[in-house]
Amino acid sequence: MKKSHLSPGRLSLLMGGAAVFAAGGFFVQGVWRAVLWGIGAWLLLWVLLSFLLAPRTFSRAFDDVHTYLALIIVSAIFVFPCLWLILASLSKSGSLYDFKGFFPSEYSLDTFKKLFTDDAGGQYPYKTWFFNTLYVSVCSCILGTVLVILTGYVMSRFRFKGRNAVKQTTLVLGMFPGFMGMTAIYIIMNQLGLVNRLEALIFLYAGTAPMGYLVQKGYFDSIPNAMFEAARIDGATNLKIFTRITLPLSKPMIVYTALMQFAWPWSDVLLPKLLLKNRTTWTVAVGLFSMGETEFARFAAGSVFIAVPIVILYFCLVKYIVGGLTAGAVKG
Amino acid sequence: MSQAAEKKIDALHCPWQVRCSMVIMGLGQMIYGQIVKGLFFLGVECGMLYFFITRGWKDIRGFFTLGTVLGDPWLGTQSDNSMEMLILGIFAFILLAFWIILYLVNVHDALSTARDVRAGRPVRHINSTLASMTDEKFHITALSLPVVSVMIFSILPIIFMILLAFTNLGGDVMYPSKLADWGFSAWEKIFSLGKVGDTFLKILRWNILWAVVATLVNFFGGLSLALLLNKKNVIGKKIWRAFPVLAYAVPGFISMVGFKFMFSQSGPINYLIKSAGHDPVFFLINDPSATWWARGIGLFVNAWISIPSIMLMATGILGNINTDLYEAADIDGATGMQKFFRITLPFVVFSITPVLISMFVGSFNNFGIFFFLRSGITSKDYFLASDTDLLINWLYGLSVDNNYYSVGAAISLIIFLITGGISLAVYVRTAAYKQEDTYQ
């Protein structure tokens, strides 16, 4: 056998590791024994390869194999629960107790059909929930985006009396636990006669959105001032600058904001649970949360149905999301 | 220019028209001929007067008394609802502040018109006032709606909760059987040695541990994932990246409820364990044996949900690292480890510090995980909480499910002091906060 090109330190590390794992296998039972012996054999394999392969090939192979192994494991961890839910939504029987292991034994599209046609005696009116959710999400997305973009823009571009007060107040208030005022919100909505109305949610989602203006402000901060000054010299009013220059320039931020403003109502459980007391006024999230283990397939189908649009949106707009997340990260 | 024009005009030395505005909002403006503006101010004054005469003064009085009338079913009288009185009182105070601000604006406006008149300039026409709303006063126009909505839906509830912590509302002090009062009983409960105080300490300890561990796991998980996907020898980066993004895109509550089903007593994992010939493991049930299982599963689910977004963020930041640095390091013969610890990690940590803090605060207040995994569980030796609950879950359980309003409010103030103290200290120090103008 050729001399290994691994440094003695690394070679002994690999060999020692192999020995420890193999020995450890003797002291445990069942699955763990197989796991430990597997790891030991794997390390031994690389020790052997270090004698057989040329140095370049070895280090490349070592790196490649482990990189891809890690990628496969990580991807499996992320994709498996999703796959599990998708397949469960296609199962023939509804209850979690009928599943033998992870995956259903028989497949059919019945659960999806049932989701829309059979509401189990008014218990799960999914179609109504779906349109409720759509209504709330679209309205709060439009309203909320307008409010946040305006706030972020003004806070970034204008210097006015009270600006610092606004900045510090939002900073401090932002540190209070988000739904700390839930009791108060319920009373306010009760006073306004909005309990059990979807509009209450729209006002809440859109109305509290400006609190999170910092990401948008960070984005506007990064647009060079010169552009605005040039327009000012040409005699444009501030409104004109905002509509003609700022908005076209900030498309990525608008897309990001709109997506976030849409996704939040789409998947929020707490506020609808607090404010909507009739099953027919619920949103999908509350409805799905109310389903027990016997309705597992219905839960899975309902989840898949509302997750698909948002997943597609995220995939199409992932570029903007990275932009938004980074803008938030760097500027805080 | 006459001698009079040079004399300063201020609130003490001003023409009679301004004094009219001081007495009745908008009157001075109307005398100057600014009818629309004058009517607007007058309208505000009338509206406010109407509100405060019909109910506002009662609301403000109610704020201090928190109710004086206890209902009597025999006489058919209604109890005062202390909680409503508190919130309506705060609302009346906010309106009062708003009125005072508008009153000052009104006087200020009349003064500036008086200066215009003295200097011989024409009185501003309504059209030019409106035009200024889209130009030099654009920020006021743009911010008015956000400020009002945040005032009602964020600030008012928060003020309410802060004040609530200093009443004795909740428990048996409830509408309509008992009237509330101001006091420190909630704080006494938390800081005394009773069950509430005991639970508070236990939950606080777990909460701090959770926040630290979860932040570290998520940060290093996300960073290593980003580095893994960024490796030069990975082909098809976009496809590999799609899997974490999928997990990120799935609405959080679906993943959390899904995991609850997966780990439930009759779920698939226990089915596999049973078919391998072992006893089922009770991961999430209400039993001391499940405590650390449930905590571990919570950590895993939290990582599953949060790592992808941190990965995306880190990818964006890694793209900003100057590649020259790595080339220089290569020439100097640096190993991969050295490059990571000397270049990558410092850079990422430096640019991500503000986010790291908000990640910590987010983990500290991570309501969703244990709400979805283990809702409705009350553990032994805990006061209306489960052994996995964080302070925020406890606060929710106390104030929304069990009507212990003042204790819940006091806990939220404590949470605020902890998280706010940490983040304020860091925010104030970050360069982004101090020198925001230098970037522009």
Top keywords for this entry?
heterodimer; A: 332 residues; mainly alpha; 16 helices; B: 440 residues; 19 helices; disordered N terminus
Helix count from the secondary structure assignment of chain A: 16
Mean pLDDT of chain B: 85
Name the chain pair whose interface involves the most residues.
A-B, 103 and 101 residues
How helical, in percent, are the residues of chain B? 55-70%
| Main sheet summary of chain A | none
Radius of gyration of chain A: 28 Å
Name the helix and strand elements of chain B from N-terminus to C-terminus, one letter apiece: HHHHHHHHHHHHHHHHHHH
Distance between the termini of chain B: 43 Å
Task: Please report the number of helical segments of chain B.
Answer: 19
What does the radius of gyration of chain B come to? 30 Å
Overall pLDDT level of chain A: 87
Per the principal axes of the C-alpha atoms, what is the gross shape of chain B?
A: flat
Structure description:
The complex is a heterodimer of chains A (332) and B (440). Chain A is an all-alpha fold and 332 residues long. Chain A contains 16 helices and no strands. In chain A, helix 9 (214-221) crosses helix 16 and helix 12 crosses helix 16 (318-331). The mean pLDDT of chain A is 87. Chain B has 19 helices and no strands. Chain B is flat.
